[in-house]
Write a structure and sequence with these properties.
The chain is an all-alpha fold. It has one domain. It has six helices and no strands.
Length: 148
Amino acid sequence: MTFGLVEQPITILFHSLYAIIIVVLHNALPYAIIPLYITLRSIPESLYQAAMDLGSNKLSIFFRITLPLSMPGIAIAFLFIYIPMMGEFAIPALVGGKTYMLGNFIVRQYLTIGNWPFASASTISLLLITLIVMFIVFKFLGVRRLYE
């Protein structure tokens, strides 16, 4: 406001779900970019040249070469973001106001209410959900190819 860019504060960024989304994306974006970059750099240039020589357009090259070969990087980027964000409680507590995420719910049950059994059961269920998602990602998105 001092610089004259806006006349009043942008209310969408104060204690709302949108503020949580923006801050979480800002926090998690580097963890997604690095595996995607490494995976995309590992695709040989000769595949693109061969596809262009055979008459493919850029859209079909993307869907037939780039996307399938970058699926392991997409899966790893998803896991790098998904796992920490499932238990995130600091960001929603600082910028979210009254908006709660699962981590806030568990911390509230544990510290404020003192319902330790329910907080423990919630934590174990969150862990099981995360393990199931990890299994699905590793099984169906070709992450094993990264280790061969």
